[in-house]
Amino acid sequence: MTTIHDVAKLAGVAPITVSRVINNSGYASKATRKRVETAAAELGYVQNRLARSLRTKRTNAIALVLTDITNPFFTTVARGVEDAASEAGYTVTYCNTDENEVKQQKNLDLLIQQQVDGILLVPAYSSADAIQYIQNHNTPVVILDRRILDAKADSVRCDSEKGAYELVRLLLELGHRHIAMLGGPKGASTADDRLSGYRRAMAEAGLHDVTHWVQFGSFNQASGYKMAMKAISSTTPPTAIFAANNFIAIGAMKALQNCGLSVPEDVALVGFDDLPPALVTFPFLTVASQPAYEMAQKATHLLLSRIEGNGPDDIREIILPTELIVRRSSGPAINGLNQAK
Amino acid sequence: MTTIHDVAKLAGVAPITVSRVINNSGYASKATRKRVETAAAELGYVQNRLARSLRTKRTNAIALVLTDITNPFFTTVARGVEDAASEAGYTVTYCNTDENEVKQQKNLDLLIQQQVDGILLVPAYSSADAIQYIQNHNTPVVILDRRILDAKADSVRCDSEKGAYELVRLLLELGHRHIAMLGGPKGASTADDRLSGYRRAMAEAGLHDVTHWVQFGSFNQASGYKMAMKAISSTTPPTAIFAANNFIAIGAMKALQNCGLSVPEDVALVGFDDLPPALVTFPFLTVASQPAYEMAQKATHLLLSRIEGNGPDDIREIILPTELIVRRSSGPAINGLNQAK
DNA sequence: CTGTTAGCGCGTTCAG
DNA sequence: CTGAACGCGCTAACAG
What we know:
2 copies of one chain form a homodimer. The first copy, chain A, is α/β, with parallel strands linked by helices. Helices cover 43% and strands 15% of the residues of chain A. In chain A, helix 1 (4-11) packs across helix 3 (30-43). Chain A is elongated, with a radius of gyration of 26 Å.
């Protein structure tokens, strides 16, 4: 490995001068600059950022801690983060938590040891502990996608409550009253908020007791399948289903198909999260779409501003609107006949 | 920031003793070990891996350089890499190259500066330069997904040629003779190999001149759409289409739909790469599926073995088979009438 | 515009 | 089993 000393010797200058040329910091005459550059090129010198970071206390690396990169929503988030970060000269390290508290803590430890300049966290659970922990180590953190009460940190997310409200409103306006909610894990704020939105819309329609219609599960297809099966095999099956995320919706679609029910003819279906257009041949699901890429970029910018110390004193909370995209799966208005009871 | 010095002072030992306890290296009596551990816990000490890495010349970080994390194939790869890496105590940094040579080089530079212990590279172009460059800096590298001639590095990929061959064979056996190939970018080995497989199958069927049927494009939906449009609007349109990857296939589906053609009734369609089951409601496309997760894990293990210095002397090349999954899009055998000419 | 000195936090080396 | 000295490669602070 060649160091600035080697370059310095070859160029006939002091190491610090090499450092200044490389980093474009401080003055350097055209002549010495030239000499240093040639020497560096000749030796194939590359800076050791470990040493640099140790000295400057900056790594120019941020971390993205999310639940599962396999979900296209988070893939888009990852892409948004990387684009914004790399434009600003930062690299991105990412880790999956699988909604698992222990895994999240393990990852956070590692990241702090690595001295990342900042962390974008999609919290696996709703307590402020993890945020506190990160901040105790003087690392800026931005909460992404989910809500954490009492956390003194910037956050960026979508308005899950309103998105859910709009979806359920749509179903109500189409004449549905028996609307099942296939929910996410209790405790994940996105799951909670979507349930709240559902409840608000239902209550406004005079449907106050929805316990029969609500289920909790996980944000994956298997869970969606299971919950849908349970819903449609109940004594009063739903005429419409609201799935709390994309995977749950897909699982529900499969369950309905397996039971010989068609969407939207037999059961209407709406869901949270759109799939990227590149992945879908014939968009079919009515959804509340979240601007994942934009969200990620905004969050990254917030984080970077904290890192560079030019953020405001108070906490920023950015809540982006979801977009209601009506497609075939929600179906047309239904007549009274469909509404058993 | 608390350092081993602080811990040492509190525990009444020398810094080096703290180091030994933390890393479980060298001897330490039960008593001092205990004292050090309590002191560390009390101060909330976390190791500074920057300093450690500078000293040990190991970062326990590997990098995954791929073309686009947005493609579910690569998402699965990313997940495979991270699972394998984190199990072995390594973190993963990733970057997208967007099939762009300049971007790739920029990323590689950064990674080498960061002293990553190894690099998993999905090469954006087919020359061995990048590999050479990485190796010149004494960094182990494993070539992932694509083929590079003359590269002296381990590699893991799927058998694109054979996968393509099987898909086209299937179409031929169903009676198709007019089979269009919607290809990837010239130079990407996966694109080249899939074309070779197509050619081989066609030649075996006595179809030696296929220039009319072959197009080159990009691995994205827009390109698939464009190529499909061109193919079906030609004077002798195809009765079947082979798409060189998942995005191209989806683009082709859209084009066919827009032209009022149905799959497989009017045109049969097969493609490379399956979509993860979690993303698809009703699997429809006949595909050659690549074991992305397994591939990623194997590649990571190869890389780690190089890093830890217990790999064999000679280069390893792992070529995994693709799986032919026949679904509806390839259609039934066609009768002579469909085969114009 | 350039150089000297010192030290970031840690682990290797060698000595007890 | 424990410690002292040193240096990994770099840059901040100060001097000239």
